[in-house]
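Narrative summary of target 7.
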Amino acid sequence: MTIPYLLGIDIGTSGCKVGLFTVDGELRCQASQAYETHYPEPGGVEQNPDDWWNAASTLIRRIIRETGIAPREIKAVGVDGQSGALVPVDQRGRPLIRAMTWLDRRTARQCEALIGQIGFETLFSVSGNPVTPTYVTGKILWLKERKPEVYKETRMILQSNGYMVYRLTGRPSLDVSQGNGIHAFDIAACRWDEALAERIGIDPRVLPPIHECHEVVGEVTARAAEETGLAPGTPVVAGGLDAACATLGAGALHPGEVQEQGGQAGGMSIVMDWPIKNERLILSRHVVPGRWILQGGTVGGGSLNWLKRTFAGNEPDFFNAVEEEASRVKAGSDGLVFLPYMSGERSPIWDPDARGVFVGLDYSKTRGHIVRAIMEGCALALQHNLKTAEQSGVSIRTLHCVGGAANSRLWTQIKADVTGKLMKVPSSDSATTLGAAILAGLGIGLYRDAEEAVRRAVRIRREHRPDEANHALYRKIYGIYIETYERLKDMFPRMGW
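Modeled conformation, tokenized:
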């Protein structure tokens, strides 16, 4: 009797990751490969969709070779991807340009013009999101204006995982969790508002068919099988947004449960049973039917990597060493506060001019103080997002922590103390690919529903409960953290000399 396997493919911002799982969530093998990011002009940030495909194909073949499994043992494939990537394809499904990623900022003028033309409230009421360069809408209008010959050839607008599903199956699709990228997507009804699309200036005919994230879009074609090593006819589901798949893979599927991801670009996703809108956060459908997620993101997670790169050189075992040093510093870092805005900041302040700041330095401060203050600053940024969501009436119960920072017991405990919430840590380094694989299993009926899938496939390794004394202290520090930014925000734009 053969063991059924599920394959999850993650098209991330910096690289592709592929994971092979059993139905019970056991990670049999995971591999990753980076791809190049292009900066063709000021504000432009692009990736070649064929690089995504080549990376995924290489990794799938490697996993099949290294595990020795038969391709037929892989029963279904799920794909997740970065948000906000524009992939216009021609009638044969070939990309017409490199993908404009969510980091691309060239569309600010088109976004401003669209708001002036239609109005913020109309666009926000349908999509649940403000119009900014992060999303796909402005990119479509930029393409139409700047490269009209390309727009004229465009037969379908795809996003990152939709393009990969197309390469696997030959069928275009948009999963509901990526619908928020285009402001003609009705976030409550999960359908295209074709009248609004036409008002925006988007031909509804280039908008792909919408699928639930676990819905089977098609099967692996003979050509895709030859390139990847997968068996022809393997079912492929629509997949979803990387943050939403990580939320499922972390075991967060009930209202009030939160996926918290600490890494180079940290973030949080709050599960809701109704689309509560907040213009300072990001709203999308969850990959779980009947659920939505309200998301926030921060850039501060890379601050420890910056510290190591800048001051530690080749010091062996740096992260374990500094965690031990930071653990000897009491909560509050003896009056040292850090704003983790090392590359501007995303939600909820959306301030590209913001900068990292240490407040309270003196000769008594050690490296341990600096490290603990960085950890606390990132936790305070998380709390800022959570508090912003709660102001809209969103309920928050527990946080499920994934990503590299979740491997740090100290950092996770600091987040529990700052937020006052219970922290649950599942397998932290494979939540995103696991979420995509779970969708594949749901699509072919290996799980009855998402509840059964999480019960079988997601395992909580440890929990962190907040220390009430520390939480009381951090409530005071949070006020100082917010006030520090408010006092400095007008100064940041003047510091670009």
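The CA atoms of residues 179 and 206 lie 14 Å apart.
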